[in-house]
Specification:
Blueprint lengths: L1 E4 L2 E8 L6 E5 L11 H8 L4 E5 L18 H9 L10 H14 L5 E6 L1 H12 L4 E7 L13 H8 L7 H15 L8 H14 L3 H14 L3 H4 L6 E6 L8 H9 L4 E5 L11 H14 L16
Length: 308
């Protein structure tokens, strides 16, 4: 269903018992809500949670920003490398306010928030800016953005940037199959037919590479979040693959060290994806972290935006 959130049209999917504690899932760069596998949603629903998936702005069935044009990514990366300001048409803070708007539209005062990759960056903003709205925080395969951290290999970065800009099913399938072969979990290779079915479902639902480019622009512009991560007070769990080639595992140790009381779970053989074999384990981690929320101090008053 489509909601009006933060003044935008945002597509959401809600599953699970109406009275269950809500879990808001925020997906990564260029990924639709389908990026959260149904088996993962089922694992949370079976634990009694009400699960909310959303298409971030500019992707999937949510509102487009095509009128803002495309970035010159060579210029964006050059400015980033030279430590010059990068200004994007929208920011990760804006995207965090979209997620907050989804909670508002659903009438939810709080939710357990789980973000993957770019979605984890958005979730960091949400937890710091609106601490009273985030019951617990799970951050999967993401980073603080600190510049000193190890970066992805050049081949991985090139593959990430090389997605086709035209709607050609064969080109898109070939691109994502190659990309996932590079960044996926070496210990948990996907079933080829299941992977193909998921990629086709995503492609036929929506194909908006221009939106992905603008989201990447926002990620680069966001930079290093280290200076305010200490403001996060929600019980936090950091889940990361030991074999992640896109966001090397050093980022998880760095992130967990910067958030007070964060619990770190590093999974051997996991890369930058959500393997079928690990979905129940990751769901269990989200649920265990959510249960920590009951032992925390009371939330701060509404309107408190934290230390930022």
């Amino acid at each position: 269903m489509r909601l009006t959130a933060n003044g935008l049209a945002i597509e959401v999917d809600v599953q699970g018992p109406e009275q269950g504690e809500p879990v808001l899932l925020i997906m990564g760069l260029g990924m639709q809500l389908l990026g959260w596998p149904q088996e993962f949603v089922d694992a949370l629903v079976q634990r009694g949670y009400r699960v909310i998936r959303m298409d971030n702005r500019d992707i999937g069935l949510s509102q487009s920003f095509d009128a803002m044009g495309l970035p010159n990514m060579a210029e964006v990366w050059l400015r980033h490398a030279l430590h010059l300001p990068v200004r994007s048409p929208y920011t990760l803070t804006d995207m965090a306010m979209d997620a907050l708007g989804v909670l508002d539209a659903l009438g939810l005062p709080q939710a357990h928030v789980c973000g993957a990759s770019m979605g984890g960056m958005i979730a960091q903003h949400l937890a710091a800016l609106r601490p009273q709205r985030v019951s617990s925080l799970t951050l999967i395969m993401t980073t603080s953005g600190a510049r000193r951290l190890p970066q992805a290999r050049l081949a991985v970065r090139r593959a990430l940037m090389a997605r086709p800009m035209v709607a050609d099913e064969n080109l898109v399938l070939a691109h994502f199959t190659h990309l996932l072969d590079l960044i996926g979990s070496p210990a948990y290779p996907p079933d080829p037919q299941r992977l193909r079915d998921r990629l086709l479902a995503s492609y036929h639902r929506s194909w908006r590479p221009q939106g992905t480019a603008r989201q990447l622009w926002a990620v680069v512009a966001d930079g290093d979040r280290s200076r305010w991560l200490g403001a996060i007070r929600a019980p936090t769990r950091v889940i990361h693959g030991q074999a992640d080639p896109l966001v090397p595992v050093a980022a998880a140790h760095d992130l967990a060290g910067k958030i007070q009381g964060a619990v770190l779970e590093v999974i051997p053989g996991m890369g930058h994806d959500l393997p079928l074999e690990l979905l129940d384990r990751i769901a269990a981690g989200v649920a265990e972290n959510a249960q920590r929320a009951s032992s925390t101090t009371p939330s701060r008053p509404a309107g408190d935006a934290g230390a930022r």
